[in-house]
Amino acid sequence: MRGEYLDKRENVLLIGNPGTGKTHLVCALAFSACAQGRNVRFYTATDLVTQLVECREEKRLQRLHKQLQRVHLLVIDELGYVPFSKAGAELLFEVISRAYEHHSLMVTTNLAFEQWTEVFGSERLTGALLDRLTHRCHILEANGESYRLRQARKRSHWKPSIRQDPNQEPPKNMKG
Fold first, then answer.
1. How many Cα atoms occupy the beta-carbon half-sphere of 33 within 13 Å?
2. Which of 55, 39, 141 has its CA nearest to residue 91?
3. For the packed helices 45-57 and 61-69, what is the interaxial angle rounded to 10 degrees?
């Protein structure tokens, strides 16, 4: 919260299951950075890649890169939910590569590192991206059950049925 990672240009990577508070924590850290007078930009990964592709098509990509170079913290939320096109993956790699050792990145994802190739489509590109992102990086793991699912269970008073013997047949009137 004090922002020392920003002074050192270190990255923060939050990895974990959906609903475990990654985005919530990122927003709190980004808000704290703003309160300290730091320039922060927040994107979902899909929105950033879409904007990069559109800017490239409209020949405004250099302007966006200059805007991103002026931030102290660039937040990329929800990396891994949607695979990128080859062009989109390359454009996002360029953003991360330009940020490397110049300003901090904060990334949330629900994917383990070995699954990132599915999103970026290239082992070589994924390896280079992870190398830059994880060097001088704080990696936080958010494990556990989704708080949204937990709240839904409380609202509906739903409790999963528990059988003593897994080999025991369920009662005839029980479905599923």
1. 26
2. 55
3. 140
Provide the residue range defining the domain that includes 90.
4-142
> What pTM value is reported for the model?
0.85
- Report whether 84 contacts 119 (CB < 8 A): yes
Q: What number of CA atoms fall less than 13 Å from residue 161's CA on the CB side?
A: 8
> In the chain, how many domains are there?
1
Rg (CA), the chain: 20
Nearest in space to 105 (alpha carbons), one of 20, 7, 10, 26: 10
What CATH number corresponds to the domain at position 88?
3.40.50.300
**Residue 167: DSSP 8-state:** T
Q: According to the model, what pLDDT value does residue 174 have?
A: 44
pLDDT above 80 (res 164)? no
The residue among 145 and 96 whose pLDDT is bigger is 96
C-alpha distances in Å from residue 10, one per residue of 27, 35, 52, 116, 128? 17, 19, 24, 21, 17
Distance CA 57, CA 102 (A): 26
Asked if the structure places residue 133 within a domain, the reply is yes
d(CA 121, CA 123): 7
Mean pLDDT of the chain: 91
